[in-house]
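Many introductory courses stop at the sequence. We go one step further.
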Amino acid sequence: MGKAMKVGNKDGFGAVKRKDGWLRAKIGQVCIISTICIICIICFICIICIICIICGVGCGSKGLEKMQSAEGEVTGGGNGTGAGCAGEEGNRAESGWTGEEGGHAEAVGGGGTEEGKETDTSKQIAETYRDIYEKAAGEGKLSSLETIQDIVDRLGEEGYCAIDMENENQVNLTHPEKIEEFCSLVELGKKGEETIISIMEDGGFIRFDLETVHGEVFVTRSVLQWKGGMPEVDYMNRYPACEWEFSGNGYLFFRKKVPQGYDGDQGYTAIRVYPLEDECRELNRKYILPIGYNANQAFLLDWTEEELKGLDFDDLFSKLYNSTFGKPLPYEQTIDGTSYLVPEEEYEKVILSHFRMDKETLRAYGNYREKDRAYEYRSRGFNDCASSPNNPYPEVTACERQEDGTWKLTVNAVWPIENMDKAFSHEVVVRVLEDGGFQYVSNRVIPDEDNAEPTWYTERAVK
């Protein structure tokens, strides 16, 4: 019995031992698998962290590069009186510059903020000429030169520096001495501030608040419009003037930096500070502006009424049609340009009213089709229209009544986008007729080594 017990104990012990070994093996496998999983998870987390660090460094580098690039743009040099894109941080802080280059007035708080105070001031400025605005709006004359002149004069009486639409300069600036003084402060590196109000054709205005510190200029540009009979500021933008120049002929040029290749608003402003004689302005509006420099080369060439070869009479037909008939040109401009048969009476009336020649001479110069008793007129297409708001505009700076009764006009081509108050000069002789009409007698480009190439002009495409 004891022996049997012995054997039984041995067998029982062996079974337990075998079960224990199996359990230990399973536990070992589980531990190994768990360890591997933990290691994999740790490795995965480490890889994610490394990727994040790499991306963070990369993004940070790009951000730093952008910051450095922006800083380079802001601190880059300007021209003229020495004002660059911006100055040292101390100068910005001293001028109140925050580094923010944009913002809309409607998003700005009330009068407690600086922007709110500026908005309130603009509304007060508009209220000073409300009567002029309401009268002109009721008569449909808001865009007339007379209305704009009246508003400018009113603001001048209130002590403001005011002028007509930005970059047009058809009205003399009020209180030019204030802007001259400001430009002097810029040149001397002293602190100063001034405001210019530019009246728009809808009765609103663009307000330029100028500040200068240590020869650098900061601009706050805001726009006020009348909405429902109430003045509202709906745009405000602050920027350092990356270019600032007060020219020898009395033009102030300044500019906001825009990305290279940007095809929107080019950010430039040109303001004539020195006044022009009223007679020069009137003669310019009557004889020179109707032709101008867009989509024609009449004032880019030397010619006389004895030798008109070289002039493009199709271009002149489109330019002078309105002043001849008092209505817009009916021949539409198309993408590629379109040819029209214009009755001879219509075409000849426009050209012969403004140039001394007979029909036979014009028909020899022009594209006359005898069988149709008409001229083949081709409108310029979009590719050769040669018209742009960035092109120069003419400005009569001197006028002389000659012994034969003709006017000799000295004209400067003002090219704002190039900061040029005289891209070139030319002399135009005009004959005033007894019936109130006029004829162009000649044009002569005044030779000067500084004359700019008329890169804005495009030759008409071949018919």
